[in-house]
Design brief:
Distance between the termini: 25 Å
Strand content: 15-25%
Number of strands: 15
Structural class: alpha/beta
Radius of gyration: 22 Å
Shape: globular
Number of helices: 14
Length: 400
Amino acid sequence: MTGLSRASLPPFMIIEVRKAGFVNKGAYLMLLAIVQQIRQRYPAATLTMAPSTRKGTQSFESLVRHGFLPKASLIRGGLQWGNLAALLPSRLREMYGLVMDSEVDGVLDAAGFAYGAPWSPAVMHELACSARRWRRQHSALVLLPQAFGEMPGRRYRKLALEVVACADWVFARDHESLRHLTAAVGERPNISVSPDFTATTVGIPPADPSSWQHIIAIVPNARMLDQTEPAIRDAYIPFLSDCIRLIETRGARIKVIVHEEREDLTVAESLLGRDRLDEIVVEPDPLRLKGLLGSCRGAIGSRFHALASCLSQGVPAFGTAWSHKYRALFSDYDFSEGFLQSISTESASRAVTSLLDDDWISATRRSLLARAATQALQIDSMWTRVFALLDSAGARRQSV
């Protein structure tokens, strides 16, 4: 343990988690990984999150069910109108568990991939406004490992500079993301690289793991249809269909795993048709989903955290990409062979042939597990830094 002793920490530290959610299973897995770490380090801490509408990714019901208190938050014009909740009697706020922005000791941003192209600078504008406010009130801000896109134009660079100047630390998830960020803000002492931090989160295996050990998982991603060039978009569904056909022709079994039910389920259904819906897996618990992927023989997929869940558990996986973060993930595990630079019948055949080769599977598993151990050390180092920053923020705010 680094930083302050546990006895010197504020007894009821309040930590906000932002930009995670309960719909996308990757975001959900990041959220659970954060909760696990915070509960180990600060057992008495209060966790808070700004709720969304019921149809959003952070509904009030979901965050309360996971032990979060709702943060009074309404951002308009860069201002935190949620502070008007301070006009309510403190007893009423306590009765309904409302947390004020000014009460937050530390903020952990788990956006995943939300800043930089192809996303609008409006998302970073909201972060920049909040970051200035948190700096004034001595609240720590840490951007946990995430991908950053290119930040073209004067406005994007200005916003990025404001965020980095106000943040206690910014972790890029890969070196290309680091290049995108430093191209906008220059090299800064509070920017570094750390890998995806869900790698060390332990999944829940299926009741009968042996029933999954011969399964090859297919994990589609709707982003391959709306964030790629027309040639890739048009080839994507035929590619996955080729993979399924080749696997089954050679006597193996598949399951199509849905990582984002609102969008990927439609893709899954288009692959198998109405008569094979029993082969589509929709698992609401991301830890159980990680356990399923960890029990598979192998996978072919397009969801970042599905691929990360496979590789971190030694399961060989081939992946298609709609952003730079996929190539970086396979580089982290020294498994460039798994990154499919093109999607075609030929690449489908190559991936399936490898996944059905017992010797290749055994050798690849050993290599992936060795790299996973290295990733775990880097993640531990990241959390050590995060806790030191939160400790310092708690002490700062206690002394103000």
